[in-house]
Amino acid sequence: MATVATGPSSERLSSFNPATGELIASVPIHTGAEVDAVVARARIAAQTWGTRSFEARSEELTAFRKALAAHADELADLIHRENGKPELEALTEVMMALGHVQHATGRAETAMEPRRVSAGLLANYRATISYHPLGVIGVIGPWNYPLFTPMGSIAYALAAGNAVVWKPSELTPLVAVRVAEIAAKTFALPDLLQVVTGAGSTGAALARSAVDKVAFTGSAATGKRVMMAAAERLTPVLLELGGKDPMIIADDADVEKAAEACVYGALTNTGQACISVERVYVADALHDRFVTAVVDEVRKLKVGGDDGHLGAMTSAAQVAIVKDHLEDAVAKGAKVHTGGPDAISGNYIQPTVLTGVDHRMKVMSDETFGPVIPIQRVASLDEAVQLANDTTYGLGSSVFAGKAARSIAKRLRAGMTSINSVMGFAGIPSLPFGGIGDSGFGRIHGDEGIREFTRIKSTAEQVMSIPMNMMSFRQPKNMPKQIRGMIKQLYGEGVVAKAGDFLRKLRG
Ligand code: NAD
After folding, report:
1. Phi and psi of 412, rounded to 5°?
2. What is the CB < 6 Å shell around ligand 1?
3. Looking at residue 505, what is its pLDDT?
4. Are 271 and 368 in contact, with CB atoms under 8 Å apart?
5. CA separation for the pair 86, 305 (Å, rounded)
6. pLDDT, averaged across the chain
7. Which end of the chain is more exposed for a tag (fewer CB within 10 A), N or C?
8. Widest CA span in the chain
9. Residues 169, 485 contacting (CB under 8 angstroms)
10. pLDDT tens digits for 234-265?
11. Helix, strand, coil share (%) of the chain residues, nearest 5
12. What is the DSSP string of 414-483?
């Protein structure tokens, strides 16, 4: 829970612990003018950082990673207190974020290595593609993974040679402020990674500012607003939005393993993950055994307390959405096996297993973002795939199956799929992460995630002259005839000659 003070810019944003309601600290609400000034300072840092060698950048990023690792307990404690997740999950988040800093640092040079490509018909040219930093990247983050998620953009943007201005969620600003303090002490350029704080209006100011790209993570509705604000300057955007990730269990799946993974995938972070398992389709033959296994597993979990598996929900607003989805499902005939709409107390929701669900229910169509496992029985794999793809989202997905696993995975319309596991793709830093449709576009992580924060430059260098110079008005009289011959030979029927061979023939 956090409140945003209204009034002049001297007022502040308070961050509260959602488990206890305790005020943790407050941060400034940055105005548009303040955001612009921060971006201007970042631009100066970017000009130096972008011209440094990969080796020099790698040295500083490694020092930054080590400094963050040295503060791991403090960062995890802030995440735990601001977001409400248990300490174990907060520490895991810090570890995963550090993994991305390390990966991006190590891969940047390779991912941005200039590539020589075929010059095609212009065989006397040397054709090269090279990658260059964009300048300043605005990163707007969510509250559910307040460090890991933004770091998936920040680390890659920095490693690619950019400066970063980060606007964390108003529900979890403190961890970002602490990371920025550590960055200012570690990097030789103190403005390389800066944080601006505030609610939507500060985010909107960043999207409208003179940044060279906006990397946004949050809801689809806000993503559209960010894209509209960025359009004012034609600033490119990367959108990591929500999801309604399906899980398919085929009739030859290992029921116990599938149930264990399903429960973790749906309930980790109290179900507040963009790649949470949000709906499950189970083959008829396995349905009852699977439901029993899931319910048994869920009953072993503890909600709240220092050793709890599930923490407090981060905001009362999210609790209200989950309650609404559960009430809607029950009203439309879903059966509650554990939890349910009445098992909600303050910001704590008992994990809920539902069966007898269908796509008329919000719990199967809208992002629930809470500790809910709705399980639907399916008559065939075709039906499972059709239902899994019946969504405007397309972020993650998972399949538990024997021999058909890969072919099912291939048919899922999603940015990422785990086979015989959940969320596996998020733990592998070399795999690009992102979605399609209402889940957004662009990719973080992997080499694609590094190149996402670069501009592509194409260079065509003429390395030798040839008699037939197409880039000139000085052409022989018979040029039309030669061109006709070329069209026939290069692109007409029955032709096998490659452009280069043809040109060599012309050259004699
Ligand atoms: P949100 O859209 O409410 O807010 C996200 C951020 O945008 C916050 O920092 C907020 O202050 C800022 N913001 C709000 N209005 C703005 C505006 N007009 N212009 C610019 N910025 C603005 O999302 P949330 O509730 O913080 O996060 C939950 C959502 O994020 C879920 O839908 C979840 O699925 C998604 N998410 C996606 C990923 C991913 O990688 N795809 C990861 C984590 C979360």
Report:
1. -80, 130
2. 140-145, 149, 167, 169-170, 199-200, 203-204, 207, 217-219, 222, 225-226, 229, 240-243, 274, 367, 369, 395
3. 60
4. yes
5. 8
6. 94
7. C
8. 88
9. no
10. 999 999 999 999 999 999 999 999 999 999 99
11. 45, 20, 35
12. SS--EESSSSGGGG-TTS-B--SGGGEES-BSHHHHHHTTEEEEEEEEE-S--S--SSSS---TTHHHHH
Give the alpha-carbon dihedral of 67, 72, 78, 81, to 10 degrees.
180
The pLDDT value recorded for residue 8 is 43
Structure token pair of residue 141: 């983050």
Q: How far apart are the C-alpha atoms of 455 and 129, rounded to whole Å?
A: 10
Distances (CA, A) of 316 to 83, 139, 200: 12, 25, 18
Dump pLDDT digits (tens) for 21-30.
Answer: 999 999 999 9
β-sheet with 245-249: strand ranges across: 335-338, 352-355, 372-378, 277-283, 245-249, 398-400, 418-419
3-state class of 127 per DSSP? strand
- Which of 169, 202, 436 gets mutated to test ligand 1 (max ligand atoms within 8 A of its CB)? 169
| Cα 171 → chain centroid | 19
CA quadruple 256, 257, 260, 265: dihedral positive or negative? negative
Tokens standing for residue 436: 């399609």
Q: How far is CA 387 from the centre of its chain?
A: 24
Q: Report the alpha-carbon distance of residue 53 to residue 206 in Å, rounded.
A: 28
The number of the ligand 1 atom at minimal distance from the alpha carbon of 143 is 26
* HSE value, Cβ hemisphere, 13 Å, CA-based, for 275: 22
Confidence of residue 17 (pLDDT cuts 50, 70, 90): very high
274 is catalytic: yes
pLDDT at 5: 36
Q: How many other CB atoms are found less than 10 A from the CB of residue 91?
A: 18
- Read off the pLDDT of residues 64-121 as tens digits, 9 standing for 90 and up: 999 999 999 999 999 999 999 999 999 999 999 999 999 999 999 999 999 999 999 8
**What mean pLDDT comes out for the span 261-274?**
98
Answer whether 0.90 is exceeded by the pTM.
yes
Smallest Cα–Cα separation from 497: which of 194, 485, 399? 485
Residue 4 has pLDDT above 60, yes or no: no
